[in-house]
Design a protein that fits this description.
The structure holds two protein chains of two kinds. Chain A is mostly helical. Chain A has ten helices and no strands. In chain A, helix 3 crosses helix 5. The longest helix of chain A has about 35 residues. Chain A is flat, with a radius of gyration of 22 Å. The longest helix of chain B has about 40 residues. Chain B is an all-alpha fold. The chains are: A mainly alpha, B mainly alpha.
Chain lengths: ~240, ~230
């Protein structure tokens, strides 16, 4: 038992450092993906609401495709497909063979999936904002930009937050997939540790525990974010 | 546009893979349904320990990546192969397909249990009381009054769960199961043509779309006696 414990300690003997480095990469990957996914998802939602002849069906198709594809396949499409496309485009210009960064491919693939689901969340949130609020803001003489910034955006954010929080939890788990394109995330480091020590239960168990801790910490953050997004509501009710 | 040579060489294999993906999804969904029913019973039990066990199960399987669960079982089974052999289970756990089926079942059961619980709790208490007043109690009240109403609520989320399972099943390819994703990866490893991933994408999208339409039809059938909500 003591020997097993030594395997997950920090230092030259144990795999603690490697697992910590992998966890850090997993966290960084997820955190980098979110702004990209949020911005793209918001744009897609705007596109679908616009009713524009080209933008609306394009946005709807985007959602259908990236919600329907397995995340693993999206990752391969971005990584290998991106490589093929870049190669075809840049080969005449560049001599050196090029390599798509696994981290960038991970961010793009996870971001596309996140954006597809986030656009649905945003659409629902837009619909949940009562038109009366917008009319009231206009009646107060606010400019269209002010109406969006002061009346619509905070309400949309408040309604979207629970859905987005769910997507974050899904994203943290989905990052495990990047281990297959040799990105040294938590899952990959775990696989390497298992390969070297032949202790699958121990290391996959520890990895699962770390993922649980990550979602537990996220849960705390989500509760805080939701309270923050509703801070004005409470004032309005005088509590 | 389509490389016909490539299609002739790997197309049939990918269709076989599609069949295996379907097999994995259907079997694990149905087995998961049975297991989920047990978990919900435990979750709504009066005994605290039983309830906590069910909550822990759901928390564990929903909080960790499917890939980690799959590797835990697949590589873990290899480590304890001697013990499994003595228990007569090694013949099963030696097969990657069985490991994938086993893990997907445990995983989807956790999600399905949450859906079922929500659906059951959505049926108002008055319905059960009304059934009792009509002389229906216990199982008949549950199966004839509560269950049909809960099924309508559960249908949409269950449909989403099937689709998530189709997508999630692609990770089976990482433990050498030749499902659609596995066949595609093999084709790519041999041809180095990323086009095969596009074909796989089309097949997955078609599968998801067909499922979505079937579910819509099923929903119309289950709610045929309700007043139509869309004009």
């Amino acid at each position: 038992m003591g020997d097993l414990f030594a395997l997950v300690t920090f230092g030259p003997e144990g795999w603690g450092d490697e697992l910590a480095a992998g966890t850090w990469l997993t966290v960084r990957l997820a955190l980098t993906t979110v702004p990209f996914g949020l911005a793209l998802g918001f744009l897609v939602a705007l596109g679908r609401r616009s009713g524009h002849r080209i933008a609306a069906p394009l946005a709807a198709a985007f959602t259908t495709v990236f919600r329907g594809l397995p995340e693993l396949l999206t990752l391969f499409l971005v990584y290998y497909g991106g490589q093929a496309v870049l190669h075809a485009v840049l080969a005449p210009v560049l001599d050196a063979p090029l390599q798509v960064s696994a981290f960038a491919a991970g961010v793009v693939a996870l971001g596309l999936v996140f954006a597809a689901f986030a656009s649905e969340v945003f659409l629902g949130a837009f619909n949940a904002v009562p038109t009366g609020q917008v009319e009231a803001a206009r009646a107060l003489g606010l400019s269209p930009v002010q109406v969006t910034r002061i009346a619509v955006a905070p309400a949309v954010l408040r309604h979207a937050l629970p859905g987005l929080a769910n997507l974050w939890l899904v994203l943290v788990k989905d990052t495990a997939l990047v281990s297959v394109i040799a990105l040294a995330d938590l899952m990959r480091e775990t696989q390497l540790a298992v390969g070297a020590t032949d202790e699958p239960f121990l290391f996959y168990g520890v990895a699962c525990l770390i993922y649980l801790v990550l979602s537990g910490l996220s849960g705390l953050g989500i509760v805080a974010a939701e309270r923050w997004s509703r801070r004005h509501e409470r004032e309005a009710w005088g509590r | 546009m389509i490389d016909l040579d490539l299609l002739a060489r790997y197309g049939p294999r990918m269709l076989d893979g599609l069949a295996m993906t379907l097999e994995l999804v259907v079997l694990s969904f149905l087995a998961g349904l049975v297991l989920a029913a047990g978990i919900v019973r435990a979750r709504l039990s009066r005994r605290r320990a039983v309830r906590c066990a069910a909550i822990g199960y759901v928390w564990l399987f929903r909080g960790t990546p499917l890939l980690a669960q799959l590797f835990f079982v697949y590589y873990g089974a290899g480590e304890i192969s001697a013990t499994l052999e003595r228990a007569g289970l090694w013949a099963l756990f030696r097969e990657p397909f069985f490991c994938a089926l086993f893990v997907f079942t445990l995983n989807t059961a956790a999600y399905q249990a949450e859906i079922m619980r929500g659906a059951l709790l959505s049926v108002p208490e008055g319905q059960r009381e009304a059934a009792e007043a009509l002389g229906l109690g216990g199982w008949p009240a549950f199966s004839r009054v509560v269950l049909p109403q809960a099924a309508i609520v559960a249908l949409r989320p269950m449909g989403n769960e099937v689709i998530l399972l189709v997508k999630g099943s692609a990770v089976a390819s990482l433990i050498t199961v030749f499902d659609l994703m596995g066949a595609t990866r093999l084709a790519f490893a041999r041809s180095f043509d990323a086009e095969v991933y596009l074909w796989a994408a089309i097949l997955y999208l078609a599968l998801v779309e067909i499922l979505r339409r079937l579910l819509e039809r099923l929903e119309r059938h289950l709610t045929r006696h309700l007043p139509s909500t869309c004009p």
